[in-house]
Amino acid sequence: MANIGSLEQAMLPRWHRNQMSATLVPMNTDARLLQHLDGLLRTQGATDDALLAVLDQVLKHFDCVTGTIHALNRTSGLLELRAQRCIPPVIMDKVSRIPVGKGMAGLAAQRKEPVQVCNLRTDTSGQAKPGAKETKMEGSIALPMLVDKAVLRGVLGVAKPVAYEFTAAEQGLLLQLGELIGRHFGLATKPAVLDHYFIEVRAKLIEVAAFLDRVDRAEGEDDYRIQAFRAALKQLESNQPERAKQILLTLSDPTTGPIPAAKGKSASGAYPGKE
């Protein structure tokens, strides 16, 4: 899986922004845990070792013994195991890759909401796979790792050796932890890109419009530069990938041979064609 990109590193989770806006208020245990784990993943990336260290901290915080972190493989559509604690070898093959919709982890991914069983050993709901009883755990919960409330990145699971029902507050914190981990998987989300760049690019778009207005008001004929510029603008309307590359090619000299001599000291920014 790809590690977090530079844009995702620039995106502070909501809990972090809230803490920055209230620096005079001491952070509680939950906030310190979130900040610590975010720092760990930012420093080490979403490596298997880092994810295992994160999982260990989560298990310690919730007094759990068994836990898993699965990442969603968008190509295969399977949840792939990235970190685990105390999963019996006998069920490792079943746990390593889980289809969405199967078992607790698969159901959490499909429903995009927590799925919990108070006692795995006596569960008759059908939410847990039969092999789950091999873990010797009882109170268990699986939570989707949702980024921006909608983008599924994987599933976080924890379990206790005693019957237990996770409270709404505990589920809320686990969901925040899942979002934090999920932000370090894959690419930036569209809301994150828009949050980071929209205002800046909006200003540039208005600047381009103002430039075209000035050109249209000016006297004389269009030259090769504005003609190339208008041709490049048409690339923006395309839904094809690499629009920046195509615009650059539209404005660039397509020839490969050397010219006898340069006619100016600076580039014009567009190819004039054969003269």
What are the main properties of this structure?
275 residues, alpha+beta, Beta-Lactamase, 2 domains, 6 strands, elongated
Please tell me about this protein's structure.
- The chain is of the alpha+beta class.
- The protein has 2 domains: 6-182, 2-Layer Sandwich (Beta-Lactamase); 190-251, no CATH class.
- Helices cover 44% and strands 14% of the residues.
- The protein is built from 10 helices and 6 strands; from the N terminus they run H-H-H-H-E-E-H-E-H-E-E-E-H-H-H-H.
- The protein has helices at residues 6-10, 14-20, 29-44, 48-61, 92-96, 103-111, 168-182, 190-217, 224-236, 243-251, and strands at 66-73, 78-85, 97-99, 115-117, 140-147, 151-159.
- Strands 3-2-1-6-5-4 form a 6-stranded antiparallel sheet, sandwiched between helices.
- A hairpin with a 3-residue loop joins strand 5 (140-147) and strand 6.
- Helix 3 runs antiparallel to helix 4 (48-61), helix 3 packs parallel to helix 7 and helix 9 (224-236) runs antiparallel to helix 10.
- The longest helix has 28 residues, at 190-217.
- It is elongated.
- The two termini are 51 Å apart.
- The model is unreliable at 1-6 and 12-24 (pLDDT under 50).
CATH-wise, what's the superfamily of the largest domain? GAF domain
Q: Find the structural class using helix and strand composition.
A: alpha+beta
* Biggest β-sheet description: 6 strands, antiparallel
- Overall shape: elongated
Tell me the CATH architecture of the largest domain: 2-Layer Sandwich
CATH topology of the largest domain: Beta-Lactamase
